[in-house]
Amino acid sequence: MEESHSTPKDAEVKVLGGLLHHPELLARVVDLLHPEDFARERHRMIYAAMLSLSQEHDSISVQTVSKVLEQRENLSSVGGSEYIASLSCPIEEQKIIELAASIQRRATARRRLLTAGERIQQLARTEPDETIAFDKAMQLLTQVRRNPSTFASPLDELVVEYTQELSQLRTRSGELTGVPTGLVALDRLTDGLQPSDMIMVAAPPATGKISFVLSIALHAALSTGRPIGMFSLELNHKRLVQRLLAISAQTDFSRLKTGRLEHEKWERVIAASEQLMQEAGMWIDDTADLSTEQLRQRARHLVEQEHVALIIVDYLHLMQATVGGRRLEHRMQEVEEICRVLKVIARELNIPVLVVAQLFRAVESRPLEKSRFSELRGGFLENDADLMLILYRDELYTHESPYRHMVKIIVAKHRNGLVADFYVHFQPEQMRFSDLMTAPEEKR
């Protein structure tokens, strides 16, 4: 094929030039090709500018791309409008798609090689037998050399890979295989939030959903030593920091928000803020009108560049689903597309994605009867979820509830394990979730 004789630079120039000549093709390329797939930095900038124009439903031309780059103070870095104009050239539409695919395959190969290099370094540090380490390293390099376009894998290789993983698991002394949540009952059930899983946290309003996911995020960041990525469409970064400080300092949120703190509590807040800065890595994106395309690109950056252990999205119903830069017409289709993309992100990046969803239906009588919770499930919301957690606070609905300051966690779906219900302690004034000392007896 002609592709084999084209260099990465040639392919990138032809794709960008072809898109300038046929901007309508960007809708067919956008899900295949991402800015970081380009080998040359200036080509990444130009393609990113095209994506921005598409998301804003603006035309794509030499002039509009130049304007975006000028606003970003990147125009001179790419070589000016003259370089962008030199890219534009007529090229067959199918050829553009083929070249875009070739760029993506090369980028995938580079990423696989980098990942293999990291795993080989880890082998060199942890495997005491150098012969075994060498054999495993050779297996990793052999896998990388396999054509990335060959998506199927032979069973024998998959079995070898899994038995090696299983052998490593046998040597772990009670360590979780996934990201710890800090809630013992949940971690026992799931062994931590697992890579490539999409986890849905759903509840009616005022249940404490954001406090629940922030408690998990804080524990995960402190216990793993790796940063957490959070996309907050509802609260801005200031409100999130307030809640994180309230949880960490175990301080009344309302007092923290107004600054009315006694000396002792102020000292706790200062200590908590220092711990957050030094030990709790977290990347917060509070873009209010985030689209699925933007989320996919930014999540990829956080995983590949910042090595985050967990992605959190708050919350699903505020997101926009875009396909080829255009929003879907019907809201139900849009929510279904959002769920699908979130699952794809988890699979592609091999990372747990924790998503908050709002349940709008009111809880009826006898809310603790387990069968009633089928009415709470978000219809198609759980279809793509690997793990679905429903939060329920009895005191919101039952006068003089015996379950005050308790939240029932209903594991409504667990694709790779058992389902169960359990209670956790919730201090609304501190926005903090924690384990119960003693499990309550439910009254029927």
Write up this protein.
The protein has about 450 residues and is an alpha/beta fold. The protein has three domains: about 1-100, DNAb Helicase, Chain A; about 115-170; about 185-435, Rossmann fold, CATH 3.40.50. It has 16 helices and eleven strands. It has helices at about 10-20, 25-30, 40-55, 60-70, 75-80, 80-85, 95-125, 130-145, 155-170, 185-190, 210-225, 235-250, 255-260, 265-280, 290-305, 330-350, and strands spanning about 200-205, 230, 280-285, 310-315, 320-325, 325, 355-360, 385-390, 405-415, 420-425, 430-435. The strands form two sheets. It has a nine-stranded mixed beta sheet with strand order 3-2-4-7-1-8-9-10-11, with helices on both faces. It has a two-stranded antiparallel sheet with strand order 5-6. Helix 4 runs antiparallel to helix 6 (about 80-85) and helix 15 (about 290-305) packs parallel to helix 16. The longest helix has about 35 residues, at about 95-125.
* DSSP strand tally: 11
**If classified by CATH, what would the architecture of the largest domain be?**
3-Layer(aba) Sandwich
Instruction: Give the fraction of residues assigned to helices.
Output: 40-55%
Q: Going by CATH, what is the homologous superfamily of the largest domain?
A: P-loop containing nucleotide triphosphate hydrolases
Please give the order of strands in the largest beta sheet. 3-2-4-7-1-8-9-10-11
Number of domains: 3
What is the CATH level 1 assignment of the largest domain?
Alpha Beta
Please give the count of helices: 16
H/E series: HHHHHHHHHHEHEHHHEHEEEHEEEEE
Low-confidence stretches: 1-5, 362-378
